[in-house]
Design brief:
Length: 258
């Protein structure tokens, strides 16, 4: 399931610099589809298609060998389908973390199973502010690590805007401007990862406040992920289920060994 969540993550410029809107309780974002493009530092690209409607998401991937695969996540049901069009088979995975993968986390804490297995604690300790946004302040601790990680969490964007590790390493996001991308108004944030004694690593993050989705990410190492050809509109509900006539197989038999 972690690979599915990571695929989502893969899955991911001109107006004046007005401040970002304070996070509120927005109406559900509209359904949309888009190309998801990951560009590696060497210039090669990996392309897929993403469709999202309410708590459902579909990702269509094309492998370098020409083989295709489809991942479907139904957040409200806590299930995922891994579909192999070549063999006309699908695997069903029951996992509560599907909802988190589709709709984002409600807090910065690791999944409960991970917390319990590693005896970690995650505690909300108050409120803070980053780039004019009121944040939730959290502390995360783990056995064997002296001190706590401090996190400033933006519940609206479902993102940590600031993190401070016990060793002094910091990650801070700073709002820069509203920009136009793919014909849409998006927030542009810079990201700065500062390890003590080393130069800051600078990246970028572009967030669509209407779709509540990241439309572009740029890592300091040159890796970029972006959504292109964004289309707003209803999506056939049947696309969030395995196709008729496909045979269910055990999860370990899913394409790519996922």
């Amino acid at each position: 399931m972690r690979r599915i969540a990571a695929a989502l993550a893969c899955a991911i410029l001109a107006a004046a610099g007005a401040p970002p809107v304070q996070a509120q309780s927005p109406a559900p974002p509209p359904a949309f589809s888009a190309l998801a493009v990951q560009r590696l530092p060497d210039g090669s690209e990996q392309v897929g298609r993403i469709m999202k409607s309410a708590n459902n998401m579909r990702i269509e991937l094309q492998g370098a060998n020409g083989q295709s695969s489809i991942q479907i996540m139904r957040g409200a049901d806590g299930v995922a389908f891994l579909i192999d069009p070549q063999s006309r088979t699908f695997a069903l995975i029951n996992d509560p973390s599907v909802a988190r993968a589709v709709s984002g986390a409600t807090d910065p804490c690791p999944p409960p199973a991970q917390m319990q297995a590693n005896a970690m604690t995650c505690t909300r300790i108050g409120e803070g502010e980053v780039s004019g946004i009121t944040t939730q302040s959290w502390e995360l601790t783990a056995p064997g690590i002296e001190g706590a990680m401090r996190i400033e969490w933006d519940a609206g964007r479902k993102r940590a805007l600031s993190q401070t590790w016990p060793d002094g390493t910091t990650m801070v996001m700073t709002f820069q401007a509203m920009q136009e991308m793919e014909g849409r108004q998006v927030e542009y944030w810079s990201t700065s990862l500062q390890v003590p004694g080393q130069p800051a690593a600078i990246g970028g993050w572009w967030f669509d406040p209407a779709l509540l989705v990241v439309v572009r990410e740029q890592s300091p190492d040159g890796l970029t992920r972006a959504l292109r050809e964004i289309r707003i509109g209803e999506i056939d509900p049947a696309l969030f289920f395995p196709p008729q006539g496909f045979t269910q197989v055990q999860a370990q038999a899913a394409p790519g060994g996922q």
